[in-house]
Amino acid sequence: MPWNRRECRRSTIFSRTSSTTAALNRGTPMMRRRPRTCVGCRQESPKREMLRIARNAAGDVSVDPSGRLPGRGAYVCLKEECILSARKRDALSKALRVKVDAGVYDTLLEMAAGAESKGEKEQ
Ligand SMILES: [Zn+2]
Q: The pTM is what?
């Protein structure tokens, strides 16, 4: 039965249709380019010199050194003077629209002090 063999070969060819359509254009993320303004000195700085403080949906405030936590974020320079002036005006609470615990400012001050001493060691 020669026809049977031919039929078989043809069917294998037709079954090899790869239907993996690229799902790359599914919802391009919005590139939000908000200026990163320090809540202390009110100046814009490159991101790497600033520290992000994030507030999540539950209203919890946390220092976000990676800058990747979801939610509203505020930025402050990693400088003692900026953090102190922000604390004086409670600028973080205003920027994040939630009451920021005083401990957050303490954490920031510690990080600023740590960053400074670390920089001296590396030199
Ligand atoms: Zn600043």
A: 0.66
